[in-house]
Specification:
The structure is a homodimer of 373-residue chains.
Chain A: E1 6-12, E2 15-22, E3 25-29, E4 31-34, H1 46-51, E5 57-60, H2 61-66, H3 70-75, H4 79-83, E6 89-92, H5 95-100, E7 103-107, E8 112-115, E9 122-125, H6 127-138, E10 142-144, H7 156-177, E11 184-189, H8 195-208, E12 212-215, H9 223-233, E13 244-246, H10 252-260, E14 265-268, H11 270-276, E15 279-282, E16 285-288, H12 308-311, H13 315-323, H14 327-353, H15 357-367
Parallel strand pairs in A: 4-14, 5-6, 6-10, 10-11, 11-12, 12-13, 13-14
Antiparallel strand pairs in A: 1-2, 2-3, 7-8, 8-9, 15-16
Helix pairs in contact in A: 6-7, 7-8, 10-14, 10-15, 11-14, 13-14, 14-15
């Protein structure tokens, strides 16, 4: 039995617009989840994040288990109380971080073992421990199964091995998670860019039965075209009545293409990371505010957005802040970029509801990315 | 004729509570001005600064003339439009920065010449140029005369030389400034910690005639006791009906002592700088949030303050943010510290209005600083 009702309210081609109902609030889909790695969406207050229209954020299991530790967050009342985010939160399982961030990672049937990038200490992350951290200690609303995410490119053998281990870990996660009314567990499809493996992974996940299904193992270097090719078939392999979440994606154009292929949820560090480095997303692509052509540009980034960072400051001022290394520059560009992403999701939901997604997608492709960063 | 009406509404001993009326808004005194060095109060939005109760902020002439340049700010509509601060702004003249920040500084009768710490380029700051930058290009509300601020300790000869040059520069600033209805010009008393020189400086300034009078050349290493000794006599040498501004001061205890001695205005980087380094001011003195004793402290910094940073986040969360090098930690502690400072100024104004400043001062001295940083 699915923990959270997921109502699909409109369809347009393969795309869906719906609502995922959670005890901490509704999530309109397609949804973009800002990444709050260490229990903070970098540089922003939760009020600022909320003001962009974000209805759910993501937290990182590996970061939080290392600092301040999941047990400490539990003693402090859970990750919502700790961070001040009162809406739903999804936590990743740690599978991707163990591959990408940690050192000396060793994966066995039992668990992943890795070294902390903070102090080198050794840690063990098993499926059961990942569930304990996410569901019991952090108190996450949407819990992800532990998976093994392989780098790109991967041999067929390597990808097959990883998807099968991920499926076995998924079953152990399901057993550890049990039945819960107020929390949901999502499985993660693997299989690299190989269609038969994506099919096998999906079938194994469906057999276990999850509350939602993620498409993992993309945005790991395969590029936009290869990703779109996988998305031509992968979402359709997953249950139609449950949310589909494309992990770690992406640029606005990636979101538009993935939504058009039936994806409902996304997360990505790009808007906040780019913001901290002086890059602003616009409807016509990314621009770098360090560029001298903004030095006396008195226009705001986007006066049509209901976000102070987008509307109330000139590009000249933002250029000055970024050139001067001022924290406020990082704050405002992170804030603006999240506002751009949430506005895009609203536009996509409206386009689906009104049956004009193909038109929207075409105009989006025509508009951008028009400028290099 | 004074540009801005200054109404003293209550007195308590040497202390005064009043209102300085400017075209961009009233400033209740005693007032603390957050420092917005490079047209940003570091790490904060102007909305956050305003929400603490700040009614005026300070900008730095030397920083702004070097980057983005005063001419550029003028082309962009002045420093208010550029920064988004709509209230009154005071700009320092550059005298202190030339001494403290710049390299290869050379002071002649005509002007100070110095090298930019950004790119080593040479710049000349004369009294006339300082007024042009502040009053005409930036569009500051309260313009400071250019002065020569000597380091501490200074010989009597050196201090005398500097105060006399400052007085001659003050006269040139006054001539360059002329008569203005919507901007004010403040003179700066020098004279180090030598009473006779403070007297001579005050007399020279009064002869020129300014809209307000600053006490300069303190908070340069002389220490709290020596500063208080100067403040026992220096404010009383300045006109009673004009605002008195103690430049670059200070810790909360410095503000309480200076207000008790008749000072009306202050600026200091301490609350924001300390915040960026993990230090929070409390009624009982400064505490360092990095300290392990805050790791599981579930209390907010100060639930009695009407500031989200003080009220809505646990010390444990702030500890985590600071330990993790998260920008939000710097934002929240800077915000909280400014809220503490503005609350202190409100308390001081109320104590003066109600004739209980001596009592307030005693309880403040008893309360703090109780803890080492």
């Amino acid at each position: 039995m699915a923990a959270f009702p997921f109502e699909i309210r409109a369809r347009d081609g393969a795309a869906r617009a719906g609502v995922l109902k959670t005890p901490r609030g509704d999530i309109e889909t397609p949804a973009f989840m800002p990444v709050g790695t260490a229990a903070t969406v970098k540089a922003l207050t939760m009020d600022q994040v909320r003001a962009t229209g974000a209805q759910i954020i993501l937290g990182n299991t590996v970061h939080l288990m290392l600092r301040p530790t999941a047990e400490r967050i539990a003693r402090l009342g859970g990750v919502h109380r700790f961070s001040g985010w009162t809406g739903p939160m999804l936590t990743d399982s740690g599978g991707f971080q163990v591959m990408s961030l940690a050192a000396l990672t060793k994966v066995t049937e039992e668990a992943a073992t890795f070294a902390s990038p903070i102090d080198g200490s050794r840690h063990v992350l098993s499926p059961e421990r990942s569930i304990e951290i996410q569901a019991d200690l952090l108190g996450s609303d949407i819990v992800m199964q532990l998976d093994e995410c392989v780098a790109f490119p991967a041999s067929k053998e390597r990808a097959e091995e990883a998807l099968r281990l991920s499926a076995r870990w998924g079953a152990r996660c399901k057993a550890a998670f049990g039945e819960r009314e107020d929390q949901a567990l999502f499985g993660i499809q693997q299989g690299s860019t190989i269609r038969a493996l994506r099919r096998e992974s999906a079938d194994r996940l469906i057999e276990i039965g999850f509350d939602g299904y993620a498409i993992g193992g993309l945005a790991v270097g395969e590029g936009h075209e290869a990703m779109c090719e996988v998305l031509d078939y992968a979402p359709g392999m997953l249950p139609v009545h449950r949310p589909r979440y494309l992990m770690g994606v992406g640029k606005p154009v990636d979101l538009v293409e993935a939504v058009s292929r039936g994806v409902d949820m996304f997360d990505c560090v790009l808007p906040t990371r780019a913001g901290r480095h002086g890059q602003a997303w616009t409807r016509r692509g990314p621009v770098n505010l360090k560029n001298a052509r903004f030095a006396e540009d008195d226009e705001p980034l986007d006066a049509t957005l209901d976000c102070p960072a987008s509307r109330d400051y000139s590009r000249a001022y933002l250029h000055h802040l970024i050139k001067s290394g001022e924290i406020l520059g990082q704050v405002l560009l992170s804030w603006h970029n999240l506002a751009v992403y949430q506005a895009l999701m609203r536009d996509l939901r409206a386009a689906i509801a009104e049956g004009r997604l193909a038109e929207f997608r075409k105009s989006f492709a025509d508009d951008g990315p028009a400028e290099a960063a």
